[in-house]
């Protein structure tokens, strides 16, 4: 049961996810979370280093889409300057939004990774559907109230994985 929460990779930041990193894993598309994955949950627009990261991915031919549980206004305002599609109010970890994102990317599940900062939404949802999953360390220490509850549960799960030697913070390979 806990294996559904175990990511394939665990990195400190999306900036560790490079075109080379993805090529090694035969990944051609990314379904990425927004809040505390790409930027702080209360940052309205993408910072310059993130704009560069998206540009690097586009130049390498990596297809990308943002899939967020946040509202349309928030996700659209962040996504539009990047020129990438998005799905808001995604209801992760339910699978419908991940499958819709895959269709919008016109990708293959085995060549697409889900990137996110939460085990209970991003990683669980991606793993249930058979995507490669990449957990990132949250970019901020603050969260909305619902996420604070999830973080407590995730702390126990992460601790379990680390004690069992299945996962290390900043490591780009899990024990999956």
Oligomer: single chain
Biggest beta-sheet profile? 6 strands, parallel
Q: How many domains would you count in the coordinates? A: 1
Distance between the termini: 13 Å
The strands making up the biggest β-sheet line up spatially as 1-6-5-2-3-4
Number of H/I helices: 6
Principal-axis shape equals globular
What is the CATH homology-level superfamily? HAD superfamily/HAD-like
What name does CATH use for the topology? Answer: Rossmann fold
The topology string of helices and strands comes to EHEHEHEHEHEH
InterPro entries: HAD-like_sf (IPR036412), HAD-SF_hydro_IA (IPR006439), HAD-SF_hydro_IIIA (IPR006549), HAD_sf (IPR023214), PGPP1/Gep4 (IPR010021)
Protein name: YqeG family HAD IIIA-type phosphatase
GO molecular function: phosphatidylglycerophosphatase activity
Question: How are the SSEs ordered, and which strands pair?
Answer:
Layout: E1 9-11, H1 19-24, E2 29-32, H2 48-59, E3 63-67, H3 72-79, E4 86-87, H4 96-105, E5 112-116, H5 119-129, E6 132-136, H6 145-163
Parallel strand pairs: 1-6, 2-3, 2-5, 3-4, 5-6
């Amino acid at each position: 049961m806990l294996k559904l929460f175990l990511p394939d990779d665990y990195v400190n930041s999306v900036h560790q996810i490079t075109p080379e990193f993805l090529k090694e894993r035969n990944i051609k598309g990314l379904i990425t979370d927004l809040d505390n994955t790409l930027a702080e949950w209360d940052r309205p627009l993408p910072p310059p280093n993130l704009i560069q990261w998206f540009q690097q991915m586009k130049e390498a031919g990596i297809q990308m889409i943002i899939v967020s549980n946040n509202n349309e206004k928030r996700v659209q305002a962040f996504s539009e300057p990047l020129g990438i599609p998005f799905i808001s109010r995604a209801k992760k970890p339910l699978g419908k939004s991940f499958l819709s994102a895959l269709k919008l990317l016109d990708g293959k599940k085995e060549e697409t990774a889900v990137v996110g900062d939460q085990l209970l939404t991003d990683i669980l949802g991606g793993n249930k559907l058979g995507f490669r999953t990449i957990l990132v360390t949250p970019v901020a220490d603050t969260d909305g109230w619902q996420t604070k509850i999830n973080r407590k549960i995730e702390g126990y799960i992460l601790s379990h994985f680390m004690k069992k030697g299945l996962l290390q913070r900043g490591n780009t390979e899990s024990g999956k």
